[in-house]
Design brief:
Layout (H helix, E strand, L loop, with lengths): L14 H30 L21 H12 L7
Helix pairs in contact: 1-2
């Protein structure tokens, strides 16, 4: 039976640094997705109004605050898988 030796360079990667790097890349991906969605929102509000859906027909339409939209977008971006 043939003996197969490992001829490559041994793995000296510190797994702690590898995981930290992976986390930084994931956080950057989430930030970029959130920024992209906010840029889309900025473009959208140039022509349209974003309002709350009235619960009753008697209620008036209320504009949605940009900070509230940004929180919604950032929360949504953090739920998306890699490659979205």
């Amino acid at each position: 039976m043939a003996i197969i030796n490992n001829s490559g360079v041994p793995d000296r990667t510190n797994h702690e640094y590898k995981n930290k790097r992976k986390q930084i890349i994931e956080e950057e991906r989430i930030r970029i997705l959130g920024d992209s969605l906010m840029l889309f929102y900025d473009k959208l509000i140039e022509k349209y109004d974003v309002i709350y859906k009235p619960e009753d027909e008697e209620d008036k339409n209320v504009d949605v605050d940009r900070a509230e939209i940004e929180k919604l977008v950032r929360d949504y971006a953090s739920t998306k898988p890699i490659g979205f």
